[in-house]
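Minutes, project check-in
Item: structure for the 343-residue chain
Input as provided by the requester:
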Amino acid sequence: MDDYDVVIVGGGVAGLTLAKFLTEKGIPFLLIEEHDDFFRKPCGEGVIRHTMGYDFYDLYESKAGVEKEIWNTVIYTRYGEIEMEMPIVMMDKRRMEEELAKKGKGGEIKMGERVEKIENGILHPQQLKPRLIVGADGAFSMVREYAGVKKPILGMAVEGYSQNIEMDEEKCHIILRDDVVKYGYAWYFPKKEKWNIGIGSQKKKYFKEGFEKFKEKNEEVKEWRGAFVPLDKPTRAYGKNAILIGDAASHVFSAIGAGITPSMIIAKIASDFIEKWAKKDFRDMDFSLFEKEWRRVIGKYLTYSYYTKSIFFSVVRNEYLRHKLLARMCKSTTEYYRRVMKR
């Protein structure tokens, strides 16, 4: 049985970001990713640049894969357009994950290898029994199940690429109308030479109806890729000898389905705690301190995002009232980012 103190299960943004920070700290690890290439989970590829005092570029420490920086987002409702100012970095997510993997070469990264089950702390079929297991294995996390943590509520989304969108290429565009999709939204995000477009909903029935209409409207898209997305409050992020980061623990701003920046922030926090545990040879690891810290830094805002989404879609059923509420929220967001970004 091979000897690894830290094994990361999952090689998406969360797991690879943790690998990057552990490499910088000189902490050995093994990362196991079931797929043999990157960018397996579809998304809009837009990253919120500044969140809770963290800057995406400080976390990523690279410009590889950056395609465009956007300041304005237009939201289209049944009752008009609402403009919001928020810094978005449009990425080539495949290149981003490749870059994170390069920066995580201080450990061992195994691609195309799947953990089939975890029993008594042993990963099968690898026959590994690490002192610490990190679950970065997404919405259907096996590590989360092993840790005894409840699965979060999931929504569904699809994305594809188009070059035939007649919209302002210097703005992100969001369609928030019940006649497009209920309990969700559609997006048109401009990249360097094409558009990332997609649609998602927290309700399976309405997702299927909305996607069929969206697909007909955007028939030039050659390939659609879908994924389940956590749209819940963040879960407990530890259990047994495991901690969870990213989608595995619903580390997502569920009101807008944005998980990249929160996952990177919590991966950074996890790396700091792993460094402390490593200095004590991984004895007496108090995971509750990790839990307390990430919840202090960003957890309450993720929870607030969940309740905002729930009120917006489940309580405020009138689209006019939603429009008015959204206008106030966008104004507040604009004022916040003007202040913190000194614009």
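Outcome recorded: DSSP finds eight helices and 18 strands in the chain.
No further action items on this chain.
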